[in-house]
Amino acid sequence: MAAVKSSGGASRRDRARATRLRIVRAAHDLFVERGYTGTRMSDVADRAGVAVQTVYFTFHTKAELLQNCYDVAVLGEDDPLPPQDQPWYAAMLAARSGTAALRHFVLGNAQICARIAVLDDVTRSASHEPEALQVRANGERLRRDGMREVVRNLGDRFGRPPGWELESATDVLLTLSGGAVYRTLVIDYGWAQEAYVDWLTTTLSAQLLPPRRR
Asked: What does pTM read for this prediction?
């Protein structure tokens, strides 16, 4: 059955999605500005221009709202897709060299870091907010699973450096490609995105690929 459209042409579903996204954007900005503890649902409602009841009806709890901020940062707004279904991931899998594969990974991962790095720092610092830490822990678990598959794929296709172990190599990829490093170099120190991509590609190649396959 077709969605009901208003006189302006927008469907009810489209309007609900636009409202949801407006709330998430407002929450993201407020979490970054005021921290998790300092952000109230009423603040989010005011920033988004909706009733506070709308925020609670849509997201129920502040932790659920934070989870949605993470989801949008990772999946994107316009065409939400898990990283494994995004074009850069397919390009990584199709690359003919380890270094080329890692560059595609870094380019895609940098887009995610640009959206999530500051929010993740703020959430990590919410040491007295177990529900916020649980949201982050869930994200880190999914991120580790994804990074492990990247490492395994690289090793299977291009070989492994001496002393390579799957979990320790995953630790390296998680750390170097994480939001904290991105924030330090790009946001705090002012590196250009291209310089960051070049540096991280070179560094990961040295860490994760055997010399003959870089």
From this structure: 0.86
